[in-house]
Specification:
220 residues, binds adenosine-5'-triphosphate, alpha/beta, binds magnesium ion, Rossmann fold
Length: 220
């Protein structure tokens, strides 16, 4: 589904460009589970934003279903993002003026389904509240519910459990595993202890490089 061939990303800021991702090659197929580990600043979010077609590589080749997204129009990428990709942002990114239920419904589902998803992340009683009226962890759980609601082929989760206690973190990991069982490719970035289990492959990033190359992933 998604292939990266020696993909790099340099941020040209000031006099010292930052090489956030350095020659990463990997393949992600339907039903795959991939954990991206690495310390703060190692390039996890940058990698996920590129996989989500939100940030273009500055080197290498990326393909989505055999197509090069960055040779297409912004409208093409927007359509693929909307129809195929779910993203849980590190910061949540809910719309502040909508209730949690309405935020989840933005993924194109009805209120009853939104309530079911919010219930599964422990937020049933808060579905009518706006993001500003709930805690940071509750916002994060609502963001996970919204990303799951779209039934995407690719689910990209950037630190979805970073602000959660153990029970809620486990609930979120269960939801990611279910999305995978439904056939989605799921990528989870974490610098913490989140561990979705041994059925997931793991890559570790250090300064933008994969340091534990697997069969389908090469080191830089
Ligand atoms: N827009 C940007 N402009 C300049 N540098 C950036 C930009 N975005 C990220 N970087 C740099 O790229 C590197 C990788 O950042 P990234 O956000 O991908 O790390 P991360 O692994 O997600 O870290 P964290 O665990 O703290 O979220 C860092 O050195 C960061 O400062
Ligand atoms: Mg990050």
């Amino acid at each position: 589904m998604i292939e990266l061939h020696t993909v790099s990303r340099v941020f040209a800021t000031g006099d010292s460009p930052v090489q956030a991702i350095n020659a990463v090659s990997l393949q992600i197929n339907a039903g795959d589970g991939l954990v991206v580990r690495g310390p703060s600043g190692s390039g996890k979010s940058t990698l996920l934003h590129m996989l989500g077609l939100m940030l273009h590589p500055t080197g290498g080749v990326m393909e989505f279903d055999g197509q090069r997204p960055w040779s297409h129009t912004p409208a093409w990428r927007a359509r693929v993002r909307r129809q195929r990709i779910g993203f849980v942002f590190q910061q949540g990114h809910l719309l502040p003026w909508l209730s949690l239920r309405d935020n989840v419904m933005l993924a194109g589902i009805d209120a009853a389904k939104a309530e079911v998803l919010l219930d599964r992340v422990g937020l049933h009683a808060r579905s009518g509240h706006r993001p500003g009226q709930v805690s940071g962890g509750e916002r994060q759980r609502a963001a996970v519910a919204r990303a799951l609601a779209g039934g995407s082929d690719v689910l990209l989760a950037d630190e979805p459990t970073g602000t959660l206690d153990e029970a809620n973190a486990l609930a979120v990991l269960d939801l990611l595993e279910e999305a995978r069982a439904d056939g989605a490719a799921v990528v989870l970035a974490t610098h913490g202890a989140a561990d979705p289990g041994d059925k997931w492959a793991t890559i570790s990033l250090e300064r933008g490089c994969i340091v534990n190359p697997l069969e389908t992933h090469t080191a830089c």
